[in-house]
Amino acid sequence: MPMHPDSSSESPTEYAPWMPLEGLIGQWATFAQEATTPFLSKAVSAAFAAFSYEQEALASYHVARTEHPLGTTPYWPSALEAYEPTLDDLERATKEWTAVAYALRSAAFGRDGVCLHTLRGLVTDALTERQRVSRILLAVRAEQQKRYQQDKPQQGEARS
Question: Structure pTM?
């Protein structure tokens, strides 16, 4: 399954900036082997939850775009609702990345057997991922609004 939706009819700024997660998942899987303390385990758990939510969001995003392609005029409430599962999962993913950062911060205070430089780098990575997922969230919200406004009947217009 391609990570980027077909953008032949839309400019690159009009779709959400998804990216392959395999490399990041691999990095966190490697770190998970060293995560033998409670805070580090919480960080790894939250990172994998974030990945899971993002994967679910991508799947529901593809469904929304397939069911409501640009240029069609489906019944407007369904066009509005089609994006909600994607938005919910992306919001959850951003919260999980925040949880990763705080768990790593707590590990740094406890010096959980990982050097502070490594923990600082991981916190930076978590915040970077949170920001990336937030950009996807904003792009999907903008797309949802665009499709909603495209599809809703004008004031006084009857819908058959």
Answer: 0.81
